[in-house]
Design brief:
This protein is of the alpha/beta class. 30% of the residues lie in helices and 18% in strands.
Protein backbone atom coordinates (compact mmCIF):
# COMPACT_ATOMS: atom_id res chain seq x y z
CA UNK A 1 0.00 0.00 0.00
CA UNK A 2 1.32 3.43 -0.94
CA UNK A 3 1.52 5.66 2.12
CA UNK A 4 1.10 9.43 2.01
CA UNK A 5 4.27 11.49 2.30
CA UNK A 6 5.23 12.12 5.95
CA UNK A 7 4.65 15.88 5.62
CA UNK A 8 1.03 15.12 4.72
CA UNK A 9 0.54 12.79 7.69
CA UNK A 10 1.56 14.91 10.67
CA UNK A 11 -0.34 14.11 13.89
CA UNK A 12 -1.33 16.39 15.45
CA UNK A 13 -1.73 18.76 12.52
CA UNK A 14 0.32 21.97 12.74
CA UNK A 15 -1.59 25.23 12.96
CA UNK A 16 -0.16 26.45 9.64
CA UNK A 17 1.84 24.44 7.11
CA UNK A 18 2.82 25.19 3.56
CA UNK A 19 5.03 23.06 1.33
CA UNK A 20 7.85 24.30 -0.87
CA UNK A 21 9.94 22.76 -3.63
CA UNK A 22 12.97 20.68 -2.74
CA UNK A 23 14.31 18.71 0.21
CA UNK A 24 17.06 18.97 2.80
CA UNK A 25 19.16 15.85 3.35
CA UNK A 26 20.60 14.95 6.75
CA UNK A 27 23.81 12.94 6.57
CA UNK A 28 27.13 12.49 8.33
CA UNK A 29 28.18 15.98 7.29
CA UNK A 30 25.13 17.75 8.72
CA UNK A 31 26.00 20.10 11.56
CA UNK A 32 23.77 21.76 14.13
CA UNK A 33 24.10 25.43 15.01
CA UNK A 34 22.76 25.69 18.55
CA UNK A 35 22.04 29.10 20.05
CA UNK A 36 22.17 29.69 23.83
CA UNK A 37 19.32 27.89 25.57
CA UNK A 38 18.66 25.50 22.69
CA UNK A 39 21.06 22.81 23.91
CA UNK A 40 18.39 20.52 25.43
CA UNK A 41 16.45 20.48 22.17
CA UNK A 42 19.58 19.65 20.19
CA UNK A 43 20.37 16.84 22.61
CA UNK A 44 16.86 15.45 22.25
CA UNK A 45 17.08 15.58 18.45
CA UNK A 46 20.31 13.57 18.48
CA UNK A 47 18.93 11.08 21.00
CA UNK A 48 15.74 10.44 19.04
CA UNK A 49 17.33 10.15 15.59
CA UNK A 50 20.43 8.14 16.51
CA UNK A 51 18.91 4.62 16.82
CA UNK A 52 17.55 4.48 13.26
CA UNK A 53 19.80 6.92 11.38
CA UNK A 54 23.11 6.74 13.24
CA UNK A 55 23.63 10.41 12.39
CA UNK A 56 26.02 12.20 14.78
CA UNK A 57 24.58 15.71 14.15
CA UNK A 58 27.59 17.41 15.68
CA UNK A 59 27.55 21.07 16.64
CA UNK A 60 29.27 23.73 14.55
CA UNK A 61 29.14 27.52 14.39
CA UNK A 62 28.28 27.40 10.69
CA UNK A 63 25.82 24.49 10.87
CA UNK A 64 23.04 24.44 8.29
CA UNK A 65 20.52 23.08 10.81
CA UNK A 66 19.82 25.90 13.27
CA UNK A 67 18.02 25.59 16.61
CA UNK A 68 17.34 29.05 17.99
CA UNK A 69 15.74 30.23 21.20
CA UNK A 70 14.39 33.76 20.75
CA UNK A 71 12.31 35.23 23.62
CA UNK A 72 11.18 38.02 21.29
CA UNK A 73 8.90 35.56 19.47
CA UNK A 74 6.12 36.19 21.99
CA UNK A 75 3.36 35.21 19.58
CA UNK A 76 4.49 31.58 19.82
CA UNK A 77 3.73 31.42 23.55
CA UNK A 78 5.31 28.78 25.78
CA UNK A 79 5.05 25.83 23.41
CA UNK A 80 4.76 27.20 19.90
CA UNK A 81 7.53 27.03 17.32
CA UNK A 82 8.38 28.04 13.79
CA UNK A 83 10.06 25.62 11.40
CA UNK A 84 11.50 26.50 8.00
CA UNK A 85 13.06 23.80 5.81
CA UNK A 86 14.69 24.62 2.48
CA UNK A 87 17.17 22.69 0.33
CA UNK A 88 19.89 24.82 1.89
CA UNK A 89 19.08 24.35 5.57
CA UNK A 90 16.70 24.10 8.51
CA UNK A 91 15.67 26.79 11.00
CA UNK A 92 13.75 25.79 14.12
CA UNK A 93 12.81 28.73 16.37
CA UNK A 94 10.81 29.18 19.55
CA UNK A 95 10.36 31.68 22.34
CA UNK A 96 10.64 29.06 25.08
CA UNK A 97 12.57 25.79 25.43
CA UNK A 98 9.33 23.75 25.39
CA UNK A 99 8.54 25.13 21.93
CA UNK A 100 11.83 23.82 20.58
CA UNK A 101 11.05 20.39 22.02
CA UNK A 102 7.69 20.37 20.21
CA UNK A 103 9.44 21.39 17.01
CA UNK A 104 11.92 18.52 17.36
CA UNK A 105 8.98 16.09 17.31
CA UNK A 106 7.72 17.69 14.10
CA UNK A 107 11.15 17.33 12.51
CA UNK A 108 11.06 13.70 13.55
CA UNK A 109 7.66 13.19 11.89
CA UNK A 110 8.75 14.95 8.69
CA UNK A 111 11.51 12.42 8.12
CA UNK A 112 10.77 9.07 6.47
CA UNK A 113 8.64 6.88 8.72
CA UNK A 114 11.59 4.55 9.34
CA UNK A 115 13.33 7.32 11.30
CA UNK A 116 11.26 6.36 14.35
CA UNK A 117 12.59 2.83 14.47
CA UNK A 118 14.60 1.77 17.49
CA UNK A 119 16.91 -0.26 15.25
CA UNK A 120 19.45 0.82 12.60
CA UNK A 121 17.87 1.36 9.18
CA UNK A 122 20.02 1.21 6.05
CA UNK A 123 19.45 2.53 2.57
CA UNK A 124 16.95 5.26 3.44
CA UNK A 125 17.76 8.86 2.48
CA UNK A 126 17.09 10.94 5.58
CA UNK A 127 15.44 13.89 3.88
CA UNK A 128 13.18 16.62 5.19
CA UNK A 129 10.64 18.13 2.77
CA UNK A 130 10.84 21.87 2.25
CA UNK A 131 8.08 23.34 4.43
CA UNK A 132 7.11 26.45 6.33
CA UNK A 133 5.37 25.72 9.65
CA UNK A 134 4.05 27.99 12.39
CA UNK A 135 2.55 25.99 15.18
CA UNK A 136 0.92 26.91 18.52
CA UNK A 137 -1.19 24.57 20.68
CA UNK A 138 -4.83 25.29 21.30
CA UNK A 139 -4.83 24.01 24.93
CA UNK A 140 -2.16 24.09 27.62
CA UNK A 141 -3.16 20.77 29.26
CA UNK A 142 -2.75 17.82 26.91
CA UNK A 143 -2.54 14.77 29.06
CA UNK A 144 -2.56 11.02 29.40
CA UNK A 145 -3.18 9.06 32.60
CA UNK A 146 -1.78 5.61 33.32
CA UNK A 147 -3.00 3.64 36.34
CA UNK A 148 -0.04 1.75 37.81
CA UNK A 149 -1.85 1.00 41.08
CA UNK A 150 -4.04 -1.81 39.71
CA UNK A 151 -1.24 -3.31 37.60
CA UNK A 152 2.31 -2.16 38.17
CA UNK A 153 4.54 -1.14 35.26
CA UNK A 154 8.32 -0.73 35.62
CA UNK A 155 9.97 2.64 35.13
CA UNK A 156 11.58 1.41 31.94
CA UNK A 157 8.10 1.10 30.44
CA UNK A 158 7.01 4.47 31.83
CA UNK A 159 9.86 6.07 29.87
CA UNK A 160 8.55 4.51 26.68
CA UNK A 161 5.07 5.75 27.56
CA UNK A 162 6.49 9.28 27.92
CA UNK A 163 8.29 9.00 24.58
CA UNK A 164 5.05 8.08 22.82
CA UNK A 165 3.25 10.96 24.50
CA UNK A 166 5.94 13.43 23.49
CA UNK A 167 5.79 12.29 19.86
CA UNK A 168 2.15 13.42 19.88
CA UNK A 169 2.97 16.72 21.64
CA UNK A 170 1.20 15.73 24.85
CA UNK A 171 2.64 17.41 27.92
CA UNK A 172 1.06 16.01 31.14
CA UNK A 173 1.77 12.44 32.25
CA UNK A 174 -0.78 11.71 34.98
CA UNK A 175 0.63 8.85 37.06
CA UNK A 176 -2.05 7.15 39.19
CA UNK A 177 0.14 5.82 42.01
CA UNK A 178 -2.22 4.61 44.73
CA UNK A 179 -5.55 2.84 45.03
CA UNK A 180 -7.34 0.09 46.93
CA UNK A 181 -5.35 -2.57 45.06
CA UNK A 182 -1.83 -1.19 45.47
CA UNK A 183 0.39 1.62 46.74
CA UNK A 184 3.38 2.36 44.46
CA UNK A 185 4.69 5.68 45.85
CA UNK A 186 7.68 5.41 48.22
CA UNK A 187 7.25 7.39 51.43
CA UNK A 188 10.40 7.31 53.57
CA UNK A 189 8.52 8.25 56.74
CA UNK A 190 6.06 5.38 56.25
CA UNK A 191 7.84 2.49 54.48
CA UNK A 192 4.99 0.08 55.22
CA UNK A 193 2.91 1.86 52.56
CA UNK A 194 4.94 0.08 49.88
CA UNK A 195 6.20 -2.88 51.94
CA UNK A 196 2.65 -3.95 52.82
CA UNK A 197 0.43 -1.83 50.58
CA UNK A 198 2.48 -2.54 47.46
CA UNK A 199 1.46 -6.20 47.13
CA UNK A 200 -1.85 -8.07 46.95
CA UNK A 201 -2.50 -11.78 47.20
CA UNK A 202 -4.37 -12.12 43.90
CA UNK A 203 -6.54 -10.24 41.43
CA UNK A 204 -10.17 -10.50 40.41
CA UNK A 205 -10.41 -12.41 37.13
CA UNK A 206 -13.49 -10.64 35.83
CA UNK A 207 -15.32 -7.33 36.13
CA UNK A 208 -16.38 -5.80 39.45
CA UNK A 209 -18.62 -8.25 41.26
CA UNK A 210 -17.01 -11.37 39.78
CA UNK A 211 -16.52 -14.41 41.99
CA UNK A 212 -13.39 -15.58 40.13
CA UNK A 213 -9.78 -14.74 41.05
CA UNK A 214 -6.50 -15.62 39.38
CA UNK A 215 -4.63 -16.81 42.48
CA UNK A 216 -1.49 -14.94 41.36
CA UNK A 217 0.19 -12.47 43.76
CA UNK A 218 0.83 -9.05 42.25
CA UNK A 219 3.02 -6.24 43.51
CA UNK A 220 5.59 -3.58 42.86
CA UNK A 221 6.66 -0.11 43.90
CA UNK A 222 9.09 2.57 42.81
CA UNK A 223 12.07 4.09 44.54
CA UNK A 224 12.52 7.81 44.94
CA UNK A 225 15.53 7.65 42.63
CA UNK A 226 13.50 5.92 39.92
CA UNK A 227 10.75 8.50 40.10
CA UNK A 228 13.18 11.43 40.13
CA UNK A 229 14.87 9.98 37.07
CA UNK A 230 11.48 9.60 35.39
CA UNK A 231 10.64 13.24 36.14
CA UNK A 232 13.94 14.37 34.61
CA UNK A 233 13.50 12.08 31.60
CA UNK A 234 10.01 13.42 30.97
CA UNK A 235 11.11 17.04 31.43
CA UNK A 236 13.75 16.51 28.76
CA UNK A 237 10.88 15.72 26.40
CA UNK A 238 8.65 18.57 27.51
CA UNK A 239 6.38 16.39 29.66
CA UNK A 240 5.39 17.16 33.25
CA UNK A 241 4.62 14.23 35.56
CA UNK A 242 1.44 14.71 37.60
CA UNK A 243 1.35 12.35 40.61
CA UNK A 244 -1.95 11.14 42.04
CA UNK A 245 -2.36 10.07 45.65
CA UNK A 246 -6.02 9.16 46.04
CA UNK A 247 -8.00 10.10 49.17
CA UNK A 248 -10.16 9.91 51.25
CA UNK A 249 -11.53 6.87 49.37
CA UNK A 250 -9.64 4.35 47.21
CA UNK A 251 -7.28 3.87 50.18
CA UNK A 252 -7.59 0.18 51.10
CA UNK A 253 -3.88 -0.45 50.38
CA UNK A 254 -2.92 2.34 52.80
CA UNK A 255 -5.29 0.95 55.44
CA UNK A 256 -3.73 -2.50 55.06
CA UNK A 257 -0.35 -0.98 55.86
CA UNK A 258 -1.56 1.40 58.59
CA UNK A 259 -4.78 0.29 60.33
CA UNK A 260 -4.59 3.38 62.56
CA UNK A 261 -5.75 5.44 59.58
CA UNK A 262 -9.10 3.65 59.50
CA UNK A 263 -12.43 4.56 61.01
CA UNK A 264 -11.96 1.30 62.98
CA UNK A 265 -8.27 1.17 64.01
CA UNK A 266 -8.69 -2.26 65.61
CA UNK A 267 -9.64 -3.87 62.32
CA UNK A 268 -7.06 -5.58 60.11
CA UNK A 269 -7.53 -5.38 56.37
CA UNK A 270 -5.58 -6.77 53.44
CA UNK A 271 -4.79 -5.01 50.20
CA UNK A 272 -7.97 -5.28 48.16
CA UNK A 273 -8.12 -8.01 45.53
CA UNK A 274 -11.44 -6.90 44.01
CA UNK A 275 -12.27 -4.34 41.35
CA UNK A 276 -14.96 -1.72 41.81
CA UNK A 277 -15.31 0.74 44.68
CA UNK A 278 -14.29 -0.34 48.17
CA UNK A 279 -16.36 1.02 51.06
CA UNK A 280 -13.28 1.45 53.31
CA UNK A 281 -12.26 5.09 53.71
CA UNK A 282 -9.88 7.11 55.85
CA UNK A 283 -10.72 8.12 59.37
CA UNK A 284 -11.06 11.81 60.13
CA UNK A 285 -8.95 12.28 63.26
CA UNK A 286 -6.09 14.77 63.30
CA UNK A 287 -3.41 12.08 63.11
CA UNK A 288 -4.87 10.91 59.77
CA UNK A 289 -4.69 14.42 58.35
CA UNK A 290 -1.12 14.80 59.61
CA UNK A 291 -0.16 11.43 58.09
CA UNK A 292 -1.30 12.47 54.65
CA UNK A 293 0.22 15.92 54.93
CA UNK A 294 3.54 14.13 55.42
CA UNK A 295 2.80 11.87 52.45
CA UNK A 296 2.05 14.87 50.26
CA UNK A 297 5.22 16.62 51.42
CA UNK A 298 7.27 13.66 50.19
CA UNK A 299 5.30 13.56 46.95
CA UNK A 300 6.06 17.24 46.35
CA UNK A 301 9.72 16.61 47.11
CA UNK A 302 9.91 14.02 44.30
CA UNK A 303 7.55 15.64 41.79
CA UNK A 304 8.19 19.35 41.11
CA UNK A 305 5.13 19.78 38.89
CA UNK A 306 2.89 22.72 39.82
CA UNK A 307 -0.11 20.36 40.15
CA UNK A 308 -0.69 17.42 42.53
CA UNK A 309 -3.71 15.15 42.12
CA UNK A 310 -5.42 14.02 45.31
CA UNK A 311 -8.17 11.85 43.86
CA UNK A 312 -11.40 12.66 45.65
CA UNK A 313 -13.71 10.43 43.61
CA UNK A 314 -15.97 7.51 44.53
CA UNK A 315 -15.86 7.96 48.29
CA UNK A 316 -18.55 5.94 50.10
CA UNK A 317 -19.64 7.51 53.38
CA UNK A 318 -21.15 4.45 55.06
CA UNK A 319 -18.17 3.99 57.41
CA UNK A 320 -18.32 7.62 58.50
CA UNK A 321 -22.04 7.29 59.15
CA UNK A 322 -21.36 4.27 61.38
CA UNK A 323 -18.38 5.86 63.16
CA UNK A 324 -19.01 7.81 66.36
CA UNK A 325 -15.64 9.56 65.93
CA UNK A 326 -16.51 10.65 62.38
CA UNK A 327 -19.95 11.87 63.43
CA UNK A 328 -18.35 13.82 66.26
CA UNK A 329 -15.83 15.31 63.85
CA UNK A 330 -18.60 16.46 61.56
CA UNK A 331 -20.38 18.08 64.49
CA UNK A 332 -17.20 19.87 65.67
CA UNK A 333 -16.60 21.22 62.17
CA UNK A 334 -20.17 22.50 61.94
CA UNK A 335 -20.98 20.14 59.06
CA UNK A 336 -24.55 18.97 58.38
CA UNK A 337 -23.53 15.31 58.73
CA UNK A 338 -20.92 12.63 57.97
CA UNK A 339 -21.44 12.89 54.19
CA UNK A 340 -20.02 16.40 54.31
CA UNK A 341 -16.71 14.97 55.56
CA UNK A 342 -15.87 14.12 51.95
CA UNK A 343 -15.42 17.72 50.70
CA UNK A 344 -14.11 18.72 54.13
CA UNK A 345 -11.27 16.19 53.87
CA UNK A 346 -10.41 17.32 50.35
CA UNK A 347 -10.39 20.94 51.53
CA UNK A 348 -7.89 20.14 54.31
CA UNK A 349 -5.47 18.46 51.91
CA UNK A 350 -5.97 21.20 49.34
CA UNK A 351 -5.07 23.83 51.91
CA UNK A 352 -1.82 22.01 52.58
CA UNK A 353 -0.88 21.87 48.90
CA UNK A 354 -1.80 25.51 48.29
CA UNK A 355 0.28 26.51 51.32
CA UNK A 356 3.23 24.75 49.69
CA UNK A 357 2.71 26.63 46.43
CA UNK A 358 1.04 23.82 44.48
CA UNK A 359 -2.35 23.47 42.81
CA UNK A 360 -4.54 20.52 43.87
CA UNK A 361 -6.34 18.51 41.18
CA UNK A 362 -9.51 16.60 42.10
CA UNK A 363 -11.89 14.32 40.19
CA UNK A 364 -15.33 15.94 39.95
CA UNK A 365 -18.04 14.11 41.89
CA UNK A 366 -21.81 14.45 42.17
CA UNK A 367 -22.82 16.82 44.94
CA UNK A 368 -19.26 17.58 46.11
CA UNK A 369 -18.41 21.28 46.18
CA UNK A 370 -14.67 21.84 45.98
CA UNK A 371 -12.47 24.75 47.07
CA UNK A 372 -11.86 27.18 44.21
CA UNK A 373 -8.14 26.45 44.45
CA UNK A 374 -8.85 22.96 43.09
CA UNK A 375 -8.46 22.20 39.40
CA UNK A 376 -11.42 19.99 38.52
CA UNK A 377 -11.01 16.89 36.37
CA UNK A 378 -14.48 16.06 35.08
CA UNK A 379 -15.02 12.37 34.28
CA UNK A 380 -18.69 11.54 34.80
CA UNK A 381 -20.43 14.22 32.75
CA UNK A 382 -19.24 17.15 30.60
CA UNK A 383 -21.81 19.18 32.52
CA UNK A 384 -19.65 18.86 35.63
CA UNK A 385 -16.82 20.57 33.77
CA UNK A 386 -19.10 23.36 32.59
CA UNK A 387 -20.52 23.88 36.08
CA UNK A 388 -17.04 23.92 37.64
CA UNK A 389 -15.83 26.49 35.11
CA UNK A 390 -18.88 28.63 35.91
CA UNK A 391 -17.90 28.54 39.60
CA UNK A 392 -14.39 29.72 38.74
CA UNK A 393 -12.41 26.45 38.71
CA UNK A 394 -9.75 25.52 36.21
CA UNK A 395 -11.11 22.50 34.33
CA UNK A 396 -9.63 19.46 32.58
CA UNK A 397 -12.02 17.33 30.50
CA UNK A 398 -11.81 13.58 31.12
CA UNK A 399 -15.28 12.36 30.11
CA UNK A 400 -15.42 8.57 30.46
CA UNK A 401 -17.47 8.25 27.28
CA UNK A 402 -14.77 9.87 25.17
CA UNK A 403 -11.44 9.56 27.02
CA UNK A 404 -11.51 6.28 28.99
CA UNK A 405 -9.27 3.93 27.06
CA UNK A 406 -9.99 0.94 29.30
CA UNK A 407 -13.26 0.66 27.39
CA UNK A 408 -12.96 -1.62 24.34
CA UNK A 409 -12.01 0.10 21.09
CA UNK A 410 -14.70 -1.79 19.24
CA UNK A 411 -16.80 -4.97 19.14
CA UNK A 412 -15.63 -8.39 18.06
CA UNK A 413 -13.83 -11.46 19.36
CA UNK A 414 -10.39 -9.92 18.77
CA UNK A 415 -10.88 -7.29 21.44
CA UNK A 416 -9.09 -8.03 24.74
CA UNK A 417 -11.04 -7.72 27.99
CA UNK A 418 -11.97 -4.17 28.92
CA UNK A 419 -14.33 -2.25 31.14
CA UNK A 420 -17.85 -3.51 30.51
CA UNK A 421 -20.68 -1.20 29.66
CA UNK A 422 -19.77 0.38 26.36
CA UNK A 423 -17.30 1.09 23.58
CA UNK A 424 -15.16 4.18 23.08
CA UNK A 425 -14.15 4.14 19.44
CA UNK A 426 -11.81 6.48 17.59
CA UNK A 427 -14.62 8.77 16.49
CA UNK A 428 -15.92 9.15 20.04
CA UNK A 429 -12.49 10.33 21.16
CA UNK A 430 -12.12 12.70 18.24
CA UNK A 431 -15.55 14.20 18.94
CA UNK A 432 -14.72 15.21 22.53
CA UNK A 433 -16.08 18.72 22.96
CA UNK A 434 -14.13 21.11 25.16
CA UNK A 435 -16.12 24.23 24.32
CA UNK A 436 -18.10 25.53 27.32
CA UNK A 437 -21.67 26.74 26.70
CA UNK A 438 -20.74 30.14 28.15
CA UNK A 439 -17.91 31.70 26.09
CA UNK A 440 -16.61 33.64 29.09
CA UNK A 441 -15.66 30.32 30.72
CA UNK A 442 -13.35 29.23 27.89
CA UNK A 443 -10.24 30.63 29.57
CA UNK A 444 -10.77 28.23 32.50
CA UNK A 445 -10.73 25.12 30.29
CA UNK A 446 -7.11 23.97 30.48
CA UNK A 447 -7.58 21.04 28.09
CA UNK A 448 -8.23 17.31 28.23
CA UNK A 449 -6.55 13.99 28.80
CA UNK A 450 -7.01 10.27 28.12
CA UNK A 451 -7.37 7.75 30.95
CA UNK A 452 -6.25 4.12 31.10
CA UNK A 453 -7.37 2.24 34.20
CA UNK A 454 -5.64 -1.12 34.36
CA UNK A 455 -7.91 -3.63 36.06
CA UNK A 456 -7.68 -5.77 32.90
CA UNK A 457 -4.36 -4.48 31.55
CA UNK A 458 -1.18 -6.23 32.60
CA UNK A 459 1.39 -5.67 29.84
CA UNK A 460 2.88 -2.77 27.93
CA UNK A 461 1.59 -4.24 24.66
CA UNK A 462 -1.92 -4.23 26.06
CA UNK A 463 -1.50 -0.65 27.31
CA UNK A 464 -0.49 0.49 23.85
CA UNK A 465 -3.16 -1.44 21.97
CA UNK A 466 -5.84 0.28 24.05
CA UNK A 467 -4.15 3.67 23.93
CA UNK A 468 -3.32 3.92 20.23
CA UNK A 469 -4.57 5.26 17.92
CA UNK A 470 -7.22 6.69 20.27
CA UNK A 471 -4.69 8.93 21.98
CA UNK A 472 -3.70 10.22 18.53
CA UNK A 473 -7.25 11.50 18.13
CA UNK A 474 -7.20 13.21 21.50
CA UNK A 475 -3.80 14.74 20.78
CA UNK A 476 -5.24 16.13 17.56
CA UNK A 477 -8.17 17.72 19.38
CA UNK A 478 -6.18 19.39 22.14
CA UNK A 479 -3.34 20.62 19.92
CA UNK A 480 -5.24 21.89 16.88
CA UNK A 481 -8.87 20.79 17.04
CA UNK A 482 -9.98 22.37 13.77
CA UNK A 483 -8.94 19.83 11.16
CA UNK A 484 -12.13 17.84 10.68
CA UNK A 485 -12.65 14.08 10.90
CA UNK A 486 -11.88 13.27 7.27
CA UNK A 487 -8.65 15.24 7.28
CA UNK A 488 -7.54 13.62 10.54
CA UNK A 489 -8.24 10.06 9.41
CA UNK A 490 -6.40 10.61 6.13
CA UNK A 491 -3.31 11.71 8.04
CA UNK A 492 -3.71 8.92 10.56
CA UNK A 493 -3.42 6.40 7.74
CA UNK A 494 0.16 7.51 7.21
CA UNK A 495 0.86 8.07 10.90
CA UNK A 496 0.16 4.41 11.57
CA UNK A 497 3.44 3.67 9.77
CA UNK A 498 5.17 5.57 12.57
CA UNK A 499 3.39 3.41 15.15
CA UNK A 500 4.58 0.36 13.22
CA UNK A 501 8.16 1.66 13.29
CA UNK A 502 7.83 2.09 17.06
CA UNK A 503 6.37 -1.44 17.50
CA UNK A 504 3.12 -0.04 18.89
CA UNK A 505 0.15 -2.44 18.52
CA UNK A 506 -2.61 -0.41 16.91
CA UNK A 507 -4.53 -2.59 14.45
CA UNK A 508 -8.24 -1.87 14.29
CA UNK A 509 -10.52 -4.35 16.10
CA UNK A 510 -11.44 -7.14 15.78
CA UNK A 511 -7.87 -8.03 14.78
CA UNK A 512 -6.16 -10.25 17.37
CA UNK A 513 -3.83 -8.59 19.84
CA UNK A 514 -0.31 -10.01 20.29
CA UNK A 515 0.68 -11.48 23.64
CA UNK A 516 -1.88 -9.95 25.96
CA UNK A 517 -1.77 -11.87 29.21
CA UNK A 518 -5.14 -10.80 30.54
CA UNK A 519 -7.91 -13.09 31.81
CA UNK A 520 -10.59 -14.02 29.31
CA UNK A 521 -14.24 -13.61 30.20
CA UNK A 522 -17.55 -12.53 28.75
CA UNK A 523 -18.20 -9.02 30.10
CA UNK A 524 -21.73 -8.27 31.29
CA UNK A 525 -23.37 -4.94 30.64
CA UNK A 526 -23.02 -2.56 33.57
CA UNK A 527 -24.41 0.96 33.80
CA UNK A 528 -21.13 2.71 34.52
CA UNK A 529 -17.44 1.96 33.97
CA UNK A 530 -16.49 2.30 37.62
CA UNK A 531 -19.81 1.59 39.33
CA UNK A 532 -19.52 0.91 43.10
CA UNK A 533 -19.21 -2.73 44.06
CA UNK A 534 -20.38 -3.05 47.66
CA UNK A 535 -19.81 -6.05 49.87
CA UNK A 536 -23.51 -6.85 49.93
CA UNK A 537 -23.67 -7.00 46.11
CA UNK A 538 -21.16 -9.80 45.70
Amino acid sequence: MDLPRPELALVPRPRRLSTRAGRFRLDDTTRLRVTPGAGPAAALLRTLLAPATGLPLRAAADGAFVLALDPALTGLGDEGYGLTVSPQGVLLRAARPAGLLRGVQTVRQLLPYEALSGRPVRGVPWELPAVEITDVPRYAWRGSMLDVARHFQPVSYLRRYVDLMALHKLNVFHLHLTDDQGWRMPVATYPRLTEVGGARAESMAGPAGSDRFDGVPHGGSYTRAELRDLVAYAAGRGVSVLPEIGLPGHVRAALAAHPELSTDPGRRLGVWTHWGVCENVLGTDDHVLDFFRTVLDEVMDVFPAPYVHIGGDECPTVEWERSAAARARAAREGLPGPRALHPWFIARMSEHLVGAGRRPVVWAENGVTLPLDCTVMSWREPGHAHAAARRGHEVVHADHRATYFDYPRGPGPGEPPGQPGGIVDLRAVYDVDLTPPVPEDASRVLGAQGQLWTEFVTTGAHVEYLTYPRLCALAERVWDGTSGWRDFTSRLAGHRARLDALDVPHADPPAPVPTLHAPSFTPPTLPHPREPCRKDSR
